[in-house]
TrEMBL record:
GO terms for molecular function: intramolecular phosphotransferase activity; magnesium ion binding. It comes from Candidatus Vogelbacteria bacterium CG10_big_fil_rev_8_21_14_0_10_45_14. Belongs to the phosphohexose mutase family. Residues 397-432 form the Alpha-D-phosphohexomutase C-terminal domain. This is Phosphomannomutase/phosphoglucomutase. The keyword Metal-binding applies. Residues 5-131, 153-250, 256-363 form the Alpha-D-phosphohexomutase alpha/beta/alpha domain.
Length: 450
């Protein structure tokens, strides 16, 4: 069983076994191999109790479809992308449902070059192929090939550490999930004294959901940083392709600040390089990139869109509000651990605490991302375009309307039935004024969630 409803914009995700089971994974593997003409495939999985069985079905289906399969076992999603890029395989699949509860599982799929396969780039075609294909009988005793990758992956990351012998205490919340794999990499950097939180695998997520974008999940990390006087706190999500940051005071550091710090660090190595940032990030991101000699460009939200544009434009780096950070040097894929290393490098180079680096970057007042359920997104967008027609309008992804001292964006989520609002202004007074006005308009179509 693999339900058509489990095919999402960016990945596959559903309840196990009601919407996804071993036979459904086998059917998907066969359809994927045939559609892509795959001769080589890589499969990895997270720590969920259902992931091993789904991997077995997927491997069987890929093999029946003509692919030689490499099983890399228990890995983080960034690890899988690294292996897929290094091995130049035709397709790669990570079995995970990220931070979703343990009753869910899913798959993130990419083709050669770690290019994501999403709804608009072939995933829905695979869904339709499954419905019409004749799935052959399962092969007996197929044994996938194994590949050693841990040492090379660790070296790729740790070789970027330039801490000049300075010692740092680092609290790391891996939330009983795949960040444990990344914790092992950080442990190979001699200057770091790690303070791990929740570093045993448990798919029930007994301490908190593995989702650093939800600030309530960062409380334990904030407390640990303050208690141990750590220099920095890191929080990985369920499959470890996102990372949240806490400074030495236990304060949360936003993604636009981290994007700025990392971009400026990379621009010291490659001046005039292009950096992408999603359109929801603060104005100070582009200001600092350009001040550092780089070129900045806003981009559409979503990992598939960003990875594609990075390749087309040869961008060195991209940052996203959702705490995804992408690197040309990592096959245009996410690398949260490289992000942490580069932030630590900047702390060492400057001799400043993370809070000092943050203070230098933050210039404007922000609403944060606010979510609403809207019955008619189209009519809401039309109303906003009419009311704010005097601003500079972009419809790259939803709408973004910019005025000299403030801006806002409204866009439909790609993953949930929500409309998301972001607003930034020069002053708190202006932020409060325009936020109240926009909430009144949006609330006439919906109700506010969080």
């Amino acid at each position: 069983m693999i339900s058509p409803q489990s095919f999402k914009s960016y990945d596959i995700r559903g309840l196990v076994p009601d919407e996804l089971d071993r036979e459904g994974a086998r059917a998907l593997g066969f359809a994927l191999a045939r559609k892509e003409g795959a001769k080589t495939a890589i499969v990895g999985r997270d720590m969920r109790s259902t992931s091993k069985e789904l991997a077995a079905g997927l491997i069987s289906g890929l093999s029946s479809g003509g692919a030689e399969v490499v099983d890399v076992g228990l890995v983080s999603t960034p690890e899988l992308y690294f292996i897929a890029g290094k091995e130049k395989c035709d397709v790669a699949v990570m079995i995970t449902a990220s931070h979703n509860p343990s009753i869910y599982n899913g798959m993130k799929i990419c083709r050669k070059g770690t290019m994501p396969i999403g709804g608009a780039s072939g995933l829905y075609e695979i869904r339709d192929r499954i419905a019409s294909q004749n799935l052959p009988a399962e092969k007996d005793n197929y044994t996938p090939r194994l590949v050693e990758h841990e040492s090379e992956y660790a070296y790729k990351l740790t070789s970027r550490a330039k801490l000049s012998g300075k010692k740092y205490r680092v609290a790391v919340d891996v939330a009983n999930a795949m960040g444990i794999r990344e914790l092992m990499v950080l442990g190979k950097i001699p200057e770091l004294s790690l303070i791990p939180l929740f570093d045993t695998y448990d798919p029930s997520f007994p301490n908190h959901p593995a989702n650093p974008l939800d600030h309530s999940t960062l409380v334990a990390l904030q407390d640990k940083v303050r208690e141990t006087e750590a220099n920095i706190g890191l929080a990985y999500d369920g499959d470890a392709d996102r990372i949240g940051f806490v400074d030495e005071r236990g304060e949360i550091v936003t993604a636009d600040v981290i994007t700025t710090i990392v971009a400026c660090a990379l621009l010291r190595e490659e001046r005039s390089a292009l950096v992408l940032h999603d359109l929801r990030l603060s104005r100070f991101v582009s200001e600092y990139i350009e001040k550092a000699g780089g070129r900045s460009k806003e981009c559409v939200v979503g990992h598939a869109n960003i990875k594609s544009e990075m390749r087309e434009s040869d961008a060195i780096f991209a940052g996203e509000l959702s705490c995804h950070y992408y690197y040309r040097d990592m096959y245009f894929a996410e690398s949260p651990t490289l992000t942490a290393i580069l932030v630590l490098n900047e702390m060492a180079r400057s001799g400043k605490a993370l809070s000092e680096l943050c203070k230098a970057a933050q210039k404007y007042c922000q609403s944060g991302e606010l979510n609403f359920q809207v019955q008619d997104t189209g009519s809401l967008i039309s109303l906003l375009l009419q009311k704010y027609s005097s601003g500079k309008i972009s419809q790259m992804d939803g709408i973004k309307i910019v005025y000299p001292s403030w801006w806002f964006s409204v866009r439909a989520s790609n993953t949930e039935p929500l409309v998301r609002l972001n607003l930034e202004a020069d002053t708190k007074e202006e932020l409060t004024l325009h936020l109240a006005e926009l909430q009144t308009i949006i609330n006439s179509h919906t109700h506010y969630l969080k």
